[in-house]
Design a protein that fits this description.
The structure holds two protein chains of two kinds. The longest helix of chain A has 24 residues. Chain A is 34% helix and 20% strand. Chain A contains five helices and six strands; from the N terminus they run ββααααβββαβ. Chain A is an alpha+beta fold. By secondary structure, chain B is an alpha+beta fold. A four-stranded antiparallel beta sheet of chain B has the order 2-3-4-5. The chains are: A alpha+beta, B alpha+beta. Strand 1 of chain A pairs parallel with strand 1 of chain B, so a sheet runs across the interface.
């Protein structure tokens, strides 16, 4: 796994990494995947056990899971698009207050607090992972559909942790960041 | 010491930082919102049907004499299907992808008319009909009528064709 480029989503505020085996940056990729019926159907079929009555989500069908994800992602994306199109990041529209909240300490397995992007409509399993450079500068490292409580329970979530680590190394290497006191914030849009 | 803004500008000029196309994608998805959901539901139905029939996407492609890549586009749920394509897929997989909601009152009136049209058969004489129907998955209408004769009720079950012009009794209950 190598990071080959950084993509700018919002000037000086929001960036995303690109991995060597991907044609899209991670931010573009997550929203593409979360609107892809085949991708979502395969994902929920593979993780069907977590959708059953005994699982955390208690008996949601694969079809309902697919369309819940699509709707949650649409809502989140439209909100992010609105923020991006407003043209300014200021005290009324800053990423920190609108999109980010501290992650549960129990989920952190690295030395810094990890960021997650929550989806909307109450409980959402959508997650976007990012590095916080400062109050208004973030680098998206990936996203996931998190069906379990802990980030490292399942392999694909472990991959996201690895991407976070490698991203920090890469950002220092290209002089994107100078300091060590970066942290991780979660994106949210839960109406609070 | 260079500011972060200066560092970022340098990285852009060196090509290390590029412009993401996410905003263009997001705008496109927002503008397509009206028909995209229908496309996504069709995609899911196709995937379900292929799985149930133990077919692969390339099998459907062969049935329709098209490239597998076209089927793959369909199942992602981002295709703006034509009615002709939907019809071809429906016929190839023997499924219904698009069902338009019917005006219930108009349907009922047509149903009654069709049943009454064929009420001259021996089974249907001297009856009080209470036809009602429920749609079946193969789009024919199952008609259930009750007949009262000498205090006894008999249930007739028949099938209407989808144009409501023909009624075929299939059994007596």
């Amino acid at each position: 796994m190598r990071i080959v480029n950084i993509f700018e989503i919002y000037e000086e505020a929001l960036y995303a990494i690109q991995l060597n085996n991907e044609v899209q940056d991670e931010f573009r990729k997550v929203f593409s995947n979360w609107s892809d019926v085949e991708y979502l159907t395969d994902f929920f079929t593979e993780n069907e056990a977590l959708l059953t009555e005994e699982g955390f989500w208690r008996g949601i069908s694969i079809e309902d899971a697919v369309f819940k994800t699509i709707e949650d992602a649409e809502y989140l994306e439209e909100y992010l698009l609105e923020v991006a199109q407003k043209g300014t990041i200021d005290e009324y529209n800053d990423l920190q207050s609108k999109l980010f909240k501290p992650l549960s300490k129990n989920d952190s397995t690295l030395e810094h607090l990890k960021s997650k992007a929550y989806g909307t409509n109450g409980e959402s399993w959508l997650r976007i992972y990012a590095i916080r450079i400062d109050a208004n500068c973030y680098v998206i490292t990936g996203g996931a559909i998190k069906l379990t409580k802990k980030m490292n329970d399942i392999k694909h979530l472990e991959i996201e942790l690895l991407k976070l680590k490698k991203s920090v190394e890469y950002l220092k290497e290209i002089n994107f960041i100078e300091k060590d006191d970066i942290s991780f914030i979660e994106i949210r849009n839960d109406g609070n | 010491m260079a500011t972060r803004k200066e560092r970022l500008e340098n990285l852009k000029s060196e090509g290390v930082i590029k412009q993401s196309q996410w905003i263009d994608d997001a705008i496109s998805r927002k503008e397509s919102k009206g028909w995209i959901r229908t496309s996504q539901k069709i995609a899911f139905k196709i995937l379900q049907t292929l799985k149930a029939k133990k077919l692969k996407q390339k099998d459907l492609a062969e049935l329709l004499d098209i490239k597998p890549q076209q089927v793959n586009k369909w199942v992602k749920g981002k295709e703006n299907f034509t009615l002709e394509t939907i019809s071809r897929i429906e016929n190839a997989l023997s499924i219904s992808l698009l069902v338009l909601p019917e005006n219930r009152k108009a349907s009922y009136e047509r149903l009654k008319k069709a049943v009454n049209t064929f009420s001259d058969s021996a089974d249907m004489k001297n009856k009080n009909e209470y036809p009602f129907y429920k749609p079946t998955t193969n789009r024919s209408m199952r008609v259930i009528s009750t007949e009262t004769e000498k205090g006894q009720k008999t249930v007739h079950v028949g099938l209407l064709n989808k144009d409501f012009t023909d009624y075929t009794p299939v059994k007596n209950g």
